[in-house]
Specification:
The complex is a heterodimer.
Chain A (H helix, E strand, L loop, with lengths): L2 H24 L7 H11 L3 H34 L1 H14 L8 H7 L2 E5 L4 E5 H24 L3 H9 L4 H39 L2 H12 L2 H29 L4 H4 L1
Antiparallel strand pairs in A: 1-2
Helix pairs in contact in A: 2-10, 3-4, 3-6, 3-8, 3-9, 5-6, 6-8, 7-8, 8-9, 8-10, 9-10
Chain B lengths: L1 H25 L28 E12 L6 E12 L3 E5 L6 H9 L6 E6 L2 E2 L7 E4 L11 H11 L5 H10 L15 H13 L5 E5 L7 H17 L3 E6 L2 H7 L2 E5 L6 E6 L14 H31 L1
Parallel strand pairs in B: 3-8, 3-9, 6-7, 7-8
Antiparallel strand pairs in B: 1-2, 1-4, 4-5, 9-10
Classes of the chains: A mainly alpha, B alpha/beta.
Bound molecules: adenosine-5'-triphosphate and magnesium ion.
Chain lengths: ~260, ~325
């Protein structure tokens, strides 16, 4: 990227800070300014409590994201590919999809357990409510884009494969799967973003991680910490989406946009 | 090489023999050929195109009706056509007359609504590697490199012959592009690569749906010559669809002219121009005569097709 462009982007970020600074100077006392937040941030980055919240949230998102990919990609490809399989599964999934993540929380707290286990060197607790709600965020974009990806492949590619001697499963392997990948990739980028959104919602209510840190900063009255939490979540969400975007693009060298 | 020569000689002899047949037709008589040497015979008048005993593809009273949401589109109707072994047949027809539909029935993508398509005497029951297809739009797998595309058919059948694939890539000027993706190649190169992918699989029958229609005139001419070279080199039967009159005649042993929708056979033209052919043929008198005749046949149909199209857009 050239210097002029970098400068424009720098101005964009700087202007947010300026607006924040001005609003906090004239606005309500409960709104801390950038300097107060920066000071608190400096204290937090040397505090292991902060890093354990970062670690927990990141681990939750990564673990759930991998799970969502492992389930959502094959399921989406199969639903898009096989009409019968789609008829059996898709309507049920479509019914679940519009339920917002927050609406799942009471259900989760009532029904989903907290699993405790030990791996020898450390003890772990998995709050399945948080995992489940985070999973929904990542899962549906991946699933839907998988289905769309398959449906968007021109039939003639499958026909060509069959005429070249491919059996059905070979067509799936060599046409359906690679043909749907660009769309699946888009679904992963979106899904990664929504995983963070859902994670924070779930953590605020049922505990742990950056969501809980941010929420308890509010209930405890340490307002600059709210912003430390918000900024951390924003940066982590952005970083993880960007990683997914670049890793994905490097796996799709045949896309015209990737080559250009 | 000697084998190739022989095939070519055979063909030349053949075309001389069939000259009489063509004249007979022109005079409105049916030109029945007799004797073991006769490759084809035609029954004049009813538009039925026949090849004798060694018909590889036999299409009998084919009808295809599309029925999307109750709309009733008869794309092909009462179509009879035989294609002989090693014959090069072009299908010439106006836009929307059912050319692709015909090809898709032979390829095994579509089931005929009525009638039958026989290959080697057996009804077509789906796609098969012995019937290779080149599509109207380029259908190289965009996610595979040129090399991977070329190997695809043999790989599916566990019969990869690297030397043969390399030879085909060399012959078509694609050496060095094995690791390129299709979108990195020009239109002409993509079309050649698709041809390589097809030939690597060594099909008996090549079904080609307007494969060169997207190319510029120069590239198109080169591709036509290349295709003829390839066809003359090995025993292969070709059904080549086009709406380009000159292309239809330049390539064909026989040109099947179709009517506007519902697609039926309007007439069949035997092209008795010696082989091997190159672009010098295009300026010959014989070629011009064929071209005039085919243009006359297609002209009314093209007009009808256009009227149909206008009517449809008004209704919609
Ligand atoms: N799947 C389909 N459903 C409904 N109608 C169809 C379908 N496929 C083709 N048709 C119609 O059938 C007719 C013949 O189509 P076809 O594609 O075989 O024509 P074509 O001669 O190949 O045309 P073109 O020159 O445009 O390639 C057209 O009117 C087309 O609109
Ligand atoms: Mg067509």
């Amino acid at each position: 990227m050239d210097a002029a462009r970098l400068a424009k982007r720098g101005i964009s970020i700087a202007s947010i800070l300026v607006v924040w600074f001005v609003v906090s100077a004239v606005g309500p006392e409960t709104l801390p300014g950038p300097i107060a937040v920066a000071t608190t941030f400096a204290e937090y980055v040397v505090d292991p409590v902060y890093w354990s919240a970062v670690g927990l949230s990141t681990a939750r998102v990564l673990g759930t994201f991998v799970l969502a990919v492992l389930i959502g990609v094959p399921l989406g490809l199969l639903i898009g590919w096989n009409v019968v399989f789609g008829d059996f599964t898709y309507p049920a999934l479509e019914l679940i999809r519009p339920i917002p993540p927050i609406a799942w929380i009471p259900f989760g707290i009532l029904v989903l357990p907290t699993l405790a286990f030990s791996l020898g060197f450390a003890n772990f607790e998995v709050q399945t409510t948080v995992v489940f709600i985070t999973f929904l965020g990542a899962f549906f974009p991946i699933l839907l884009n998988g289905i769309e990806g398959v449906r968007g492949i021109d039939d003639e590619y499958s026909r060509a494969a069959h005429s070249l001697g491919a059996a059905d499963w070979q067509t799936f392997r060599h046409v359906i799967y690679p043909g749907a990948l660009p769309s699946v990739h888009t679904g992963m980028v979106v899904g990664m973003g929504l995983a963070w959104v859902n994670l924070v919602a779930a953590e605020m209510i049922s505990g742990g991680g950056l969501g809980f840190m941010t929420w308890s900063a509010y209930t405890g009255g340490s307002y600059p910490v709210i912003f430390v939490g918000m900024i951390t979540i924003g940066v982590l969400g952005y970083l993880s989406s960007t990683i997914v975007r670049y890793v994905g693009a490097s796996q799709l060298p045949w896309m015209e946009s990737a080559a250009a | 090489m000697s084998e190739r020569k022989q095939t070519t000689d055979d063909r030349n002899e053949n075309s001389q023999r069939t000259t009489g047949e063509y004249d007979g037709l022109r005079n409105g008589r049916s030109g029945h050929e007799t004797g073991t040497e006769g490759r084809r015979e035609r029954e004049g008048g009813d538009g039925r195109a026949r090849a004798t005993g060694d018909a590889l593809v036999e299409i009998n009273e084919l009808r295809k009706i599309y029925d999307p949401d109750g709309a009733h589109v008869t794309a092909v109707e009462d179509l009879d056509l035989d294609i002989g072994d090693n014959e090069f047949v072009t299908v010439l027809g106006p836009s929307g007359c059912g050319k692709s539909t015909l090809m898709e029935c032979i390829a095994g993508y579509l089931e005929p609504t009525e009638g039958e398509v026989l290959v080697n005497g057996d009804p077509v029951a789906g796609p098969d590697p012995s019937r290779g297809v080149v599509f109207q739009s380029n259908r190289l797998f965009p996610w595979k490199t040129i090399g991977q595309n070329a190997r695809f058919g043999p790989q599916m059948r566990n019969a990869v012959d690297d030397d043969r694939i390399q030879q085909l890539l060399d012959d078509t000027g694609l050496t060095g592009f094995e690791d390129s993706y299709p979108h990195e190649l020009s239109g002409g190169m993509q079309q050649r690569a698709e041809l390589v992918r097809l030939l690597a699989n060594d099909p008996d029958i090549m079904l080609m749906d307007e494969p060169f229609s997207g190319l510029d005139a120069m590239t198109k001419e080169l591709m036509q010559e290349m295709l003829l070279d390839i066809w003359e080199e090995e025993d292969r039967t070709v059904l080549f669809i086009t709406h380009d009159v000159a292309e239809a005649i330049f390539l064909a042993d026989r040109v099947v002219v179709m009517t506007a929708r519902p697609g039926q056979i309007k007439d069949v033209i035997d092209v008795d121009i010696g082989r091997p052919r190159d672009s010098s043929v295009l300026t010959s008198e014989a070629f011009n005569e064929y071209q005039e005749r085919a243009s006359d046949l297609i002209h009314d149909e093209a007009e009808r097709a256009m009227e149909q199209k206008q009517q449809e857009t008004q209704e919609a």
